[in-house]
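Annex B.
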Amino acid sequence: MAKSQQTFSKKEKEKKKLQKRKEKQLKKEERKANATDGTLENMMAYVDEFGNITDTPPDPTQKKKEVKASSIEIGVPKQEEEDLSTERRGRVAFFNDSKGYGFINQDGSQDRFFVHVNGLKEPIQEGDRVRFSLEKGPKGMNAIEVTKV
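Cold-shock DNA-binding protein family: predicted structure tokens.
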């Protein structure tokens, strides 16, 4: 007598596939039953004065604020020019002699500036108090004319 070609695991997989199809069909029918009409008014979204998205239209009786088009800035705001010629003071936070660069923390602020061995007037080490000027580099401000205090 011949043995059946279907194994137990094949039968289980078929049952699971059928069950998933039934669940999917039920969900589809439930969505159709609970669906609201797809009119344009139901799909509209509004932005309130704080930038939040809401489904209620704005109140037309509310006072509107006039904005001049010239006052709108697009992009990054312009930075004020720093006086680079003034001498600053700080402490060497990190300096690697073998690679020839480091960083200086400015006194009285959170500013940290890159320093290269070419910008030194005398050798420095970590922890030294220094006096320096600034110049604009390709990636930000660089400390130059660095001397120990």
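Residues 8-34 form the longest helix (27 residues). The chain is about 20% helix and 30% strand. Further annotation is deferred to the next reporting cycle.
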